[in-house]
Amino acid sequence: MAVIGFIGLGHMGGPMSANLVAAGHVVRGFDLAPAALEAARANGVTVVGSAVEAVTGAEAVITMLPGGKHLLDCYEQVLPAVEPGALLVDSSTVDVADARAAHALAGTAGFGSLDAPVSGGTAGAEAGTLTFMVGGAEEHFQRAEPLLAPMARKVIHCGGPGNGQVTKMCNNLVLGASMIAVGEAFVLGERLGLSNQALYDVASISTGQCWALTTNCPVPGLVETSRADHDYEPGFSAALMLKDLKLAESAAEQSGTDAAIGRLATELYQRFNEEGGGGYDFGAIIRSIRERSAA
Ligand code: NAD
């Protein structure tokens, strides 16, 4: 069993750290928010007073922070206190350039590091069924795999430094675009007199099949696991979807990729966020599509 430093105990990091404790690890956790610390303490996390204290004595350090700036600031702060030989694993979703900058900071300080963003949302974090997409050297991946296992259904090595983030952003480009397409298909069907059930029964076993339809269907009453059946309480919020689409859009621009659907999906989620939808599950965009369709 390992001593693990865990920085960022929010919606994701809270349940992830709890699963590490349940697997028998000693988790030294820190968050800026007192409520997150309280919840972590109740889950058996050894709550400490600073990020530096969290990494002290830890053989692995996991970060689960809001974004790239938080990650780089955190690494600058804690790296001098990280134990020799410790492995750094960042599971936040950040820009590829920031992920690679974090690897460079860790490498210069003499530490192995991985970017290991996740898919599966808060439900996956709670159930310990996240998918980890990992970028970094093979030897570090081998070392991290058993540590990540209690939080994961799958841990996949996607290549060198930053490639975990590349994978995550490409996956979420598909997810954002497919949710909009599924929403448009239901509204179009409704307006032409088709029942949602009939469309679901066919598309869910036909070529329209996708996760946005069969696991997180934006229409309530069709799929038990859908956040639509819980008043679109996230799940994966529209604000986070916009964050990921923007990361994909900026990476597309930087790499000269013609990602037209990605750009449009970003625009539509931007508008949905501006309309006040950011705190709802990203499937709630169907409401905006319905409202904008002519009476
Ligand atoms: P969150 O805002 O609930 O948690 C982030 C936590 O980091 C907060 O509790 C905040 O207080 C803490 N924090 C910020 N700066 C800190 C610092 N310097 N030191 C210590 N703690 C600090 O966000 P979340 O939903 O848990 O998401 C975390 C990351 O996971 C994000 O990068 C997000 O994009 C990604 N992600 C989220 C989901 C999801 O469904 N929520 C799914 C996949 C990936």
From TrEMBL:
Pathway: Amino-acid degradation; L-valine degradation
Upper lineage: Bacteria, Bacillati, Actinomycetota, Actinomycetes, Pseudonocardiales
Gene that encodes the chain: mmsB
Protein name according to UniProt: 3-hydroxyisobutyrate dehydrogenase
UniProt xrefs under InterPro entries: 3-OH-isobutyrate_DH-rel_CS (IPR002204), 6-PGluconate_DH-like_C_sf (IPR008927), 6PGD_dom2 (IPR013328), 6PGDH_NADP-bd (IPR006115), HIBADH (IPR011548), HIBADH-like_NADP-bd (IPR029154), HIBADH-related (IPR015815), NAD(P)-bd_dom_sf (IPR036291)
Domain of life per record: Bacteria
Enzyme Commission no: 1.1.1.31
Domain 6-phosphogluconate dehydrogenase NADP-binding: residue ranges: 4-159
Keywords carried by this UniProt record: Branched-chain amino acid catabolism, NAD, Oxidoreductase
Record field: catalytic activity: 3-hydroxy-2-methylpropanoate + NAD(+) = 2-methyl-3-oxopropanoate + NADH + H(+)
Species this protein is from: Saccharopolyspora gregorii
Enzyme class: oxidoreductase
Presence of the UniProt keyword Repressor in the record: no
Pfam families on file: NAD_binding_11 (PF14833), NAD_binding_2 (PF03446)
Domain 3-hydroxyisobutyrate dehydrogenase-like NAD-binding intervals: 162-288
Family: Belongs to the HIBADH-related family.
